[in-house]
Design brief:
Elements: H1 2-8, H2 19-34, H3 41-54, H4 56-61, H5 70-78, H6 82-96, H7 104-117, H8 121-146
Helix pairs in contact: 2-3, 2-5, 2-6, 6-7, 6-8
Length: about 150
Amino acid sequence: MKWLTYMEGSLMLLSVLNRKEKLKFLDLAMHMVSVDGEPSELEKRLLNMMLAEVGDNIVGEYQFALSKKLPETIHFFKSTHKKIKNIVYLNLMKVAMSDDFYNTLEHDFLEEVRLELGIDEMKKKQLMRLVYTERDLRGRAKRVVGH
C-alpha cells in the first residue's frame, strides 16, 4: 500500500520549490480546495501528501488558514522561473482533478492563475495530460495489485 501512496504523489515535484515558494504554494492549494466549499476527502488526502513533500520545517511555520492575500500570492509567482510556475500549476490541477467533481469554480480559479502566470494553452494541455496519465497509471496499478 505504501507503493500506491508513493505513486499518488509521484508528480508533485514540490521539493524543487524554495522555502517561500512552498509557503506561497500552500496558500494557493488551500484556496484551490476551498473555492467550491469544504475540501473533499480526496482533496484533504492530496493536501496531506503535499504537506509531507514540502517538509516538516515548512509545515511547522505554515499558518493553516485561508490567506486574505490571494492576489498577492498569485502575483508572487509571476516573477518566478517558468519551471516553478509549471510545477505550481500542475499541482493545482492535481488538486482540482483529484475528485470526480471538477466544477466551474475550480476551472475559473485555475484559469485565473494560469493567465496570471503566463502559462499558454499548449503548456496547460501538456500539464493536464500528465495529470490524466498519472491517474490512469494509478488506476492500472491498483487493478494489477488487486488481482
